[in-house]
């Protein structure tokens, strides 16, 4: 399947444009002629090649200020495929993913990453398409004592790194309820909080309400040593007000761990997180799963298509956008990868001062209008033709 997929849109452009044409494309598409690519240690590039994952690193410098020092943070985004077939025992599947991801995290640490985010439901196959409860619900785990958390807590404390771990959560306190949750682990290995997915898709194979409903944690922003971070999980990227509320709560970096396949909304992928960064004057980090996953039993989508065991290719293409709308090239569409971005968080305020989008937004107006819109006897504000 991967052999039939385009490997990288960004690489395709670089292979076919040179000189001034490439610079002009960069200016129009990425928002800057120079992608500010940073050097990666030679031994890490070799290690990535040996273990079949790519590494790229880019810089987002801010203007020098008189009263504030630069606030430099390195973020890391990991996209990866599953490690072994989905018909293997659950413990073996999860352990194989742990082994794969650990190698990438070690390289991220060696490159100085401060905040690392994994993809949606990173420690399991994206089995929600099947709508089968067995065995997939067995991947659900505790936020505090689950195997994914324990695995990452050790790495976070070892490397002094904040790690965001999107998992399938088992809430044992509340009747074993299942949630789609992002766990935030600080650089000392302590779980400082969680956020549950606010918006649940009911689109074709992505009918995830079989497993979990909309989250109940609001729009939390986590104060960390490396800045104020938030997580907008997957389908939430389609909802502008979801992005807005993380900005209202003061986020400087919003991660969007996702799992989305080619042929569905790929034309939106490069747009939504970028738009959010512009509208809310913060950095956004869009992370997508990669690879094609096949399941033991056929399933249908309720869309008239024949039953199938695969529901598409996760196209990776993870990228980072700055508050001014400039962005990095994306990672591969077919290969595991680590994307590192060096951010100066001072840019958030600088762009707020320059463009004034946050200052000129009318939250009072929106709040009043939305308060009316949710009423059962709401009358839309429409004027007659005559």
From TrEMBL:
Offer an example of a GO molecular function term for this protein: beta-ureidopropionase activity
Catalysed reactions, as listed in the record: 3-(carbamoylamino)-2-methylpropanoate + H2O + 2 H(+) = (R)-3-amino-2-methylpropanoate + NH4(+) + CO2; 3-(carbamoylamino)propanoate + H2O + 2 H(+) = beta-alanine + NH4(+) + CO2
Q: Which Gene Ontology biological process is one annotated for this entry?
A: beta-alanine biosynthetic process via 3-ureidopropionate
* EC number from the UniProt entry: 3.5.1.6
Q: Which residues form the CN hydrolase domain?
A: 73-345
Cited InterPro entries: Aliph_Amidase/BUP, C-N_Hydrolase, C-N_Hydrolase_sf
Q: What class of enzyme is it?
A: hydrolase
Question: From which domain of life does this come?
Answer: Eukaryota
Q: Which UniProt keywords apply?
A: Hydrolase
Q: Which pathway does the protein contribute to?
A: Amino-acid biosynthesis; beta-alanine biosynthesis
Question: Is-annotated flag, keyword tRNA processing?
Answer: no
Family according to the record:
Belongs to the carbon-nitrogen hydrolase superfamily. BUP family.
PANTHER family with a match to the protein in the record? BETA-UREIDOPROPIONASE, NITRILASE C965.09-RELATED
Its name, as the record gives it, is Beta-ureidopropionase
């Amino acid at each position: 399947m991967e052999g039939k997929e385009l490997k990288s849109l960004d690489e395709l452009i670089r292979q076919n444009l040179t000189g001034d044409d490439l610079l002009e494309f960069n200016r129009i598409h990425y928002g800057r002629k120079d992608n500010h690519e940073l050097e990666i240690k030679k031994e890490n590039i070799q290690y990535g090649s040996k273990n079949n994952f790519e590494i790229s690193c880019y810089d987002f410098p801010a203007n020098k200020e008189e009263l504030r020092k630069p606030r430099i943070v390195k973020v890391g985004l990991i996209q990866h495929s599953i490690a072994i077939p989905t018909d293997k025992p659950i413990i073996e599947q999860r352990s194989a993913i742990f082994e794969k991801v650990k190698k990438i995290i070690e390289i991220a640490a060696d490159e100085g990453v401060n905040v690392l985010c994994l993809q949606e439901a990173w420690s399991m196959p994206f089995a929600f398409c099947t709508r089968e409860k067995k065995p997939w619900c067995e991947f659900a785990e505790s936020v505090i004592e689950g195997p994914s958390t324990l695995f990452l807590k050790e790495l976070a404390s070892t490397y002094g790194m904040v790690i965001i771990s999107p998992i399938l959560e088992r809430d044992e306190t509340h009747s074993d309820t299942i949630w789609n949750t992002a766990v935030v682990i600080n650089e000392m290995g302590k779980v400082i909080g969680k956020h549950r997915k606010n918006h649940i898709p009911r689109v074709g194979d992505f009918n995830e309400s079989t497993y979990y409903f909309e989250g109940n944690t609001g729009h939390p922003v986590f104060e960390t040593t490396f800045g104020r971070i938030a997580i907008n999980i997957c389908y939430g990227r389609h909802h502008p007000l979801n992005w807005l509320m993380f900005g209202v709560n003061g986020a400087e970096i919003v991660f969007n761990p996702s799992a989305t396949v080619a042929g569905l909304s790929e034309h939106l992928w490069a747009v939504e997180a970028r738009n959010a960064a512009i509208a809310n004057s913060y950095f956004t980090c869009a992370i997508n799963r990669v690879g094609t996953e096949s399941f033991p039993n056929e399933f249908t989508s309720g869309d008239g298509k024949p039953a199938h065991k695969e529901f598409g290719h996760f196209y990776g293409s993870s990228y980072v956008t700055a508050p001014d709308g400039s962005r990095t090239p994306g990672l591969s569409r077919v290969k595991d990868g680590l994307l590192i971005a060096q951010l100066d968080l001072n840019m958030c305020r600088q762009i707020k001062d320059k463009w004034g989008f946050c200052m000129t937004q009318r939250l009072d107006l929106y709040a009043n209008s939305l308060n009316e819109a949710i009423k059962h006897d709401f009358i839309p504000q429409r004027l007659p033709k005559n």
